[in-house]
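As a warm-up, study this chain.
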Amino acid sequence: MTKYNISRMRNNKLVYGLFISAASVLGIIIIALLIFVSQQGLQTFRDVNPLEFFFSSNWSPSEGSFGALSFIIGSLAVTLFSILVGGPLGVLGAIFLAKLAPRWMRTIMQPAINLYMAIPSVVYGFIGITVIVPAVRHIFGVSGGFGIFTASFILAIMILPTVISISADALSAVPPALEEGSIALGATYWQTIWHIALPTALPGIITGVVLGMARAIGETMAVQMVIGNTPQMAKSLFSPTSTLPSEIVVEMGNTPFGSAWGNSLFLMALVLLIISMLMIAIVRKISTYKAVKI
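Now compare it with the structure written out below.
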């Protein structure tokens, strides 16, 4: 064995060890985070009935009431409405980018979408509170302009890059032979996209939509600036309410550590973490399906 081969094997072992170490450290950090948040959050049930926490909307820590239902419903509602708007728009944008846009436009748009992802969420929130909120107030004739509608609109814009980027990659990965065969059999290009490209790329598209939902449900600053931050159940799309992340941000600085109030915020964080992990599990399941079927 030459010195070059011995050196290469040594370097490979070193790099392998570095990767294993990095993965181990990351795993330890994640497990420690889960244990810490779980321990603190579950201590809530020493002072609060689980039924009250999950099924009551009465949130008044000064009076000993810790019902988080309005925050859970607010998070789910904002995520649902944002994906109903941003999901279809993102898929349409991905179809244009992957199948219809000329090469020169695709060369410009792909880096632009990546830059779009890098915009800080506080910028979206600032634009929302200065432009979108007054527009909603004027167009719909509502007082305030804060609420689920405004937060969902902002989030729909924020998740577009994620949905477009992943869906476009999935559509670009469709084997050209499938599309060429469809066109050769007499189908139009639109029929080929609808009946061949989209079904084939569906697992990747669903992955993009689910990751967009994961970002939407965990978004904090932008939502906190436009949703109204009122601990009450939303009566309409235009009434102020709050979500799990925004309520945690609003109250985390005022709660003593270890109190029922503070532990309730940790439990809200645990609920949010569990929802995000479930979404990641769905993505992994979809990815497995894609690897087998495509």
